[in-house]
Write a structure and sequence with these properties.
single chain; alpha+beta; Aminopeptidase; 34% helix
Amino acid sequence: MIVEALEPASFDDAIPGLGALLRDAVDGGASVNFVAGVTQDATEAWWAARRPAVMAGTITVFVARDGDGRIVGSTLLDRSINPNSPHRAEIGKVIVHRSARRQGLGSALMLAAESRARDEGRWMLVLDTVTGSPAAAMYEALGWQTAGTIPDYALDVHGRPEPATYYYKDLR
C-alpha cells in the first residue's frame, strides 16, 4: 500500500475513486455525512465540491492506494484560513475501504496528515468521530485527546441520532 498526498492537478482524476471509497464506507455503516442509499453521483459530488479548496491549497487530500492503484483510504488536512488560527487545521474523511482494514492504513494516513501539518507550522489539529467507534479508538491510540462529546450530533446511516466526540492533538 502506498500513502500519498494528491497534487491538485491529479485531484479531478481521483474523484471517482474517492467517491467509490466514500460510498463503501456508507454501505459499511459509517455515516460520514451520508445515510444509507447514497449514490456514486452523490459521493463524487461531495468530493468535487472540495475542488476549489484543493486547488487553492487549503485542503490536501491524502490517499492510500493498493497494488493496482485503487484508492483504498483517504484523509483530509483542512487548514484554517482565519487570521487568528494560522496554527490550526482539521482532519476529515479518514476512511479505509472495508477490504483494506486492519492493515494500519488509517494510522498511516493520519501520520501523513500530521507530518504535513507539522512541516507547515500547523500544530493544533482537531477532528470529530462517532463516540465509541473503532476510529475513536485509533485516534486515542495515536495520542489524540478528547475535547468533549455532543449527544445526538448526527444521524447514523439508518437515520438514528448518534453522539460525536471531538478530539484535538497538539503537535508541538
